[in-house]
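Example 3.2
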Amino acid sequence: MLELSILGFLAEEPLHGYELKERVTALSGHVRPVSDGALYPAITRLVTAGKLDQRMTEGASAAPRRMLSLTERGREDLLERLRHPKQTEITDQVRFNTVLAFLRHLPDPREQAAVLRRRLEFLRMPASFFYRDGEPVRAEETDDLFRQGMLRVARATGQAERAWLAEAVAHLEGLSRTGPADSPATAP
């Protein structure tokens, strides 16, 4: 997900390494903070693979700074990652949010809708944090106040997300009938 975040943010504009780190951290938040020990090796891998360009620019102080930008190969990789997210990128909320943050870069509303449909299908499957005899436990089926809270919040957020996903898919499918040029969701 770190590489997807790097490619996604650089698809929007060239950034210095520190600026990129701030944006990635803001996206992943306190749940999965990014360290220099993870970010800079990922940048190096992407530069080595020809997916990023880097050039040195004068910094605010005396030290030069590394300016990073996306190459055409990097843009192709970003689009491929967005078209075909891994299953964990669909099922894990934080990872899915990363995909969602950059999904607008896919130029075709049908491709965008296909990714959202995968998430919607996943959310429609019965699930719980807790199981009894192989069946998901619902909030009303536990006497544990704290587990009830977890389950009620998860149910409410799941309902809201499913509703938004259904609306977004319908919107994108409508756009695909009129053409991607009319889609604000496809603006780079």
